[in-house]
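Retry 2 of 3 after timeout on previous attempt. Resubmitting structure tokens to design endpoint.
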């Protein structure tokens, strides 16, 4: 549309249409990996997005069972999170199982891959111990040194993972308190004095030995239950049918 100018132009300026201001892009939020309540946002927790470093620290556990002539070697490698900080922690990252016996090669490889994936998923992975310990061999289990019953080879792998998690502080066992431990020791000494059973052990072993004929304890899975004062009592954990 034309506009008629009736008077002389004294001043002018060039007006250009300014583009609409683009909304400022919000900065990409940093990925907080497994943040726990009460921890700073920059504290890294175990998560599947944590990349594997070039070097990991780990431990190897030997498993020798009467089911095979060859031992199994379980290696668990750990990642160090938040190194050299007050929040430094060591968490399992991967597991390998090796043996000369190749009879169980397929399921061992599958088991190591699944366990390693669970490790890298993060969170509370201590449930793996009980899951593996609950696997029973249809041909029967066996007793380890010290009288503890192991229902299967898979369960003993769970024991190795349990030992490792206790070593790095993921599983804490308060155990018996001072009064309970004193009571168990007194009961054990009383039974040994009554039975006067001499146990000859030719091997040097730090694991406790229990009287012959002891029964299996359903609580701690140790062959240490004896009849004491008319009550079945476990000399290992103190569990008693009489309360």
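Retry 2 succeeded. Sequence:
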């Amino acid at each position: 549309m034309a506009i008629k100018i009736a008077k002389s132009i004294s001043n002018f300026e060039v007006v250009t249409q300014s583009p609409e201001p683009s909304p400022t892009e919000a900065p990409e939020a940093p990925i907080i990996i497994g943040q726990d309540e009460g921890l700073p946002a920059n504290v890294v927790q175990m998560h599947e997005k944590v990349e594997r470093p070039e070097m990991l620290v780990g431990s190897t556990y030997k498993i020798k069972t009467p089911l095979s002539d060859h031992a199994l070697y379980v290696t668990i490698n750990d990642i160090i999170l938040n190194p050299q900080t007050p929040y430094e922690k060591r968490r399992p990252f991967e597991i390998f199982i090796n043996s000369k016996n190749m009879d169980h090669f397929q399921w061992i490889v599958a088991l190591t891959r699944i366990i390693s994936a669970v490790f890298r998923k993060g969170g509370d992975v201590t449930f793996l111990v009980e899951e593996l310990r609950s696997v029973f061999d249809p041909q029967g289990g066996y007793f380890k040194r010290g009288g503890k019953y192991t229902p299967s080879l898979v369960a003993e792998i769970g024991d190795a993972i349990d030992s490792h998690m206790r070593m790095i502080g993921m599983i804490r066992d308060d155990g018996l308190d001072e009064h309970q431990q004193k009571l168990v020791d007194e009961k054990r000494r009383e039974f040994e004095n009554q039975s006067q059973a001499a146990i000859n052990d030719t091997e040097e072993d730090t694991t406790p030995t229990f009287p012959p004929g002891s029964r299996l304890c359903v609580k701690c899975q140790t062959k240490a239950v004896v009849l004491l004062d008319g009550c079945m009592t476990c000399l290992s954990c103190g569990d008693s049918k009489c309360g």
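Attempt log closed. The chain has four helices and eight strands.
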